[in-house]
Each structure stands twice: as structure tokens, then as C-alpha cells.
Amino acid sequence: MNSLVKLLKEQYQSIYLIQRLALFQLKIDNRNNYLGLVWEVMNPAIQMAMYWFVFGLGLRGNQDVDGVPFVFWMLAGISMWFFMNQGILDGTKSIHQKFNMVAKMNFPLSTLPSYVITGKLYGHLALLGIVMVAFWISGYHPTIYYIQLIYFIGLSYSFAFAITLLTSTLAVVVRDVQMIIQSLLRIMFFLSPILWLPDRLPETMQKFMKFNPFYYLSNGYRAALLYNDWYIIDHWKMTLYNLGLLTFILMLGASAHYKFRDRFSDFI
């Protein structure tokens, strides 16, 4: 618990630093591209189009999902996935890649994964804004249920940070962690109801899938944007479970981070 309190304090004191580094990283990542920051939105948009073509047109025949066109149902869930997937992948490598740059400075190392994720958050918000405009044009107008997006975006960011705090620490100690995380995320993508519905699975497996936080987050985005449901309240058991899981991962990540922090230079 002391590690968690120390971590949260360090993050709070470094908010301004995290924001500036995130914006700087965005510019560095796109400095050699003619379209610049546009690629932060265009790249996932191209992948979305391909997923819709394969899973929407090819496998489902463009059938609606609970009265919602498949393309909208997919966009609401997959926009969250692109943010978390890229944030976790890049965040896992952050300490190992950037440690030598800050090794001789009094630098809060826990901000390395957080500023990487914050940079991805900016791209996510831009992409989500475009998706929302597309929904409005198609007749899915803003409602009071949009308030839930604040919670689900914050929870997505928190999960990404909690996971990367742990994995970025372990990746310094064991380099194979980066490849393991990449493989696990690929598996989780296809095991999560982002491109398909789990309603044809046995009831036991459907209940088991609800332990996956991506299940809760993707359906939460859809409830806020498309279905006009108070998902947080209607599924309060899942809400409590995911908040508890987040707290556990944060505590585990904080404990590991501060345990190995002073020895990072030895491992690298």
C-alpha cells in the first residue's frame, strides 16, 4: 500500500511533465511523415476498415447487432482497443528504451510509461471524436449517457497504466516479457467481444469471458455511444470487479516498480 501511495503522489506531482513529454513524443514519432499527426488517426482508421470488410461484410453479411449496424457496433468497441493495445505495447518498452536518457537525472521513472500512454490517449480522443461525429451524422445523437465516457476513458487509461507499470518493470528484468505481452494482447483481441458476439458460446464460457476487462470496457463504450444504457449501474457487479482488479494490478505494479527501480541500471 505504501508503494501505491508513493506512486500516486509521484504521478500527481509530475502531471505537467507527463503532458509535455507526451506531446513531444507525438511530434518525434511523426516528424518524418508528410502527414504528421494525421497518421495517429489514419493508421487505426485503415485497420478498422479492413476489420469491417472481413468480419462485417465477409463473415456476418453486414447484419445488425441488437438493432445497430455492425460497423458502428465495431467502431465503438475497437476504438478503445487501439488505444490500450498500442499504449500497453509501447509502455512495456518505455523504461528499457528510455532509461539511459534519464539515468543521470533525478527523474521520476514511473512517469516513463505514463507519458507514453498519455501520448496514445491524445490520438484516442481524436479518433473517438471522429467516430462520434460519424454516429451523429447517422442519427445516433449525443445523450446524457455520454457522461459514462469520462469514466470508461479514464478506466481504460488507468488499466493501460497499471499493466504497463508492471510489464515495463518486468521487461527490464526479463527481456522476453515484451514478446510475451505482444502475443498475449493478440490473443486477447480475438478472445474479447470486439469483432464478434459471444452469444453462441455455452453459458459457462460467456460468464468466464466477463472476467476479461476488455469485455467490460468495449461494452461500456457501446452502451454510452449507441445503446443508451447506464452500463456502470446496470452491471454494477462487473464495475466493482474491474475496479478491484485495477487496484490489485496497480498495487502489484507499484510494488514491483519500487522494488527493482534502484537496480534498473544493473539489468540494463
Automatic annotation (TrEMBL):
The keyword Membrane applies. GO terms for cellular component: plasma membrane. GO terms for biological process: lipopolysaccharide transport. It is found in: Cell membrane. Belongs to the ABC-2 integral membrane protein family. PANTHER family: CAPSULE POLYSACCHARIDE EXPORT INNER-MEMBRANE PROTEIN CTRC (PTHR30413:SF10), INNER MEMBRANE TRANSPORT PERMEASE (PTHR30413). This is Transport permease protein.
